[in-house]
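Hello Y.,

Per our agreement to keep a running log of every chain we model this quarter, I'm adding this entry. I've kept the format consistent with earlier entries: sequence first, then predicted structure.
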Amino acid sequence: MKQLSTAMHMIVRLHDGDKLVAGLEQALRESYTRSAVVVCGIGAVKDIEVGTNMGAGEYNKHKFAGPASLVSLSGVITGDSSSGPYRPHLHMMFADSDSKAWGGHLFAATVLGAAEVTLLPINDSRLTRKRDDKHGIEALDF
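Predicted structure for the entry above:
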């Protein structure tokens, strides 16, 4: 994993074999960033697990071995401090070898070759997550 921080954005390059979510959390931890908006992400992935929220925190999960093209990655990663722990809420869209698109809430994916992700760091402690028992999710709170 490599990262480049500018005045407003952090560019993260994940390498072959990196875990997508863990790699983003590592980039935040290494740059002492509390939270971030995932602006965009592209690349290639395998060993993918995504799901659809069916309500009350229940997900209909799907696993894909890959390889697949990471077409889009977005979401918000919140942290309890600038060193975590982090709570990512990420969604991804990917295309299989037949160019069929799939997507949903991201649970896991492994980088295949490379992934490039742009983050907008947020170091405001007011951005947190709070349990929404009605919907079974950890919703943004500020």
